[in-house]
# Entry
Amino acid sequence: MAQVQIDVLLTEDQLRTRTRELAADIRATLADEPLVLIGVLKGCVPFIGDLARELSGDVAIDYVQVSSYGDGKTSTGVFQLKKDHDINIEGRHVVVVEDIVDSGLTLARLRELLATRRPASLTAVAMLSKPDARSHESRVEHVGFEIPNVFVVGYGLDHAESYRNLPFVGVLRESHG
Ligand code: 5GP
# Structure
C-alpha cells in the first residue's frame, strides 16, 4: 500500500510574514491606486485571501480558472480557460495572483489574454516559484519563495484535490511497501 509523507518546506509563520511583505511591495509599486486582484483558481484561494487582507485601500477580487494539470503531478502543457473573470479590467490596475509558477505556461498565456483587455497596468504575484522548471518566458514581478523543482502541496496546492487545506507548504513523498 502507498504511504504518504509530507515534509514541511515552508511553515505557516513563514507564509504569513512573506504575504505581509508582498502586500507592502505591491503597494510600494502601485501606491494607493484601486486594485483588481485576479486569482487563478483553485490553488490561489488561501493566498489571495491572506494577501487581500494585508493590502490597504480599494481592492476588488475576481477569479479565473485554467486547466493544465488534470489529476497528475505534471502539466499537460495545454492552456485552457475554464472560467473567465467578471470584472471589467479596462483602465484598472490588475494584479494576477498565482499559487505557484512552474513551467510558466499558465502565467504567460494569462498575461497575454489579460493584456488584450487593456488594463492600466498588469503585474503578477506568486507565493512560490520553481525557476528550474521554467520553459515559458513569463514575468512575475513579486515572488514569495523560490523553491526547488519538487512537487509541493498545501496552502492551496493539491494532489488529486487533497491537501489544499494544509496551512504550510510541504513536499509530498509517496513510498510503496
Ligand atoms: P505552470 O503553468 O506554471 O506550469 O503551472 C502552474 C500551475 O500548476 C499552478 O497554478 C499549480 O496549480 C500547478 N502546479 C505547479 N507546480 C505544482 C506543485 O508542485 N504542486 C502542485 N500541487 N501544483 C503545482
The chain has a mean pLDDT of 93. The longest strand covers residues 2-10. The beta strands are 2-10, 35-41, 59-67, 80-83, 93-101, 121-129, 142-146, 152-153, 169-176. The CA atoms of residues 66 and 114 lie 13 Å apart.
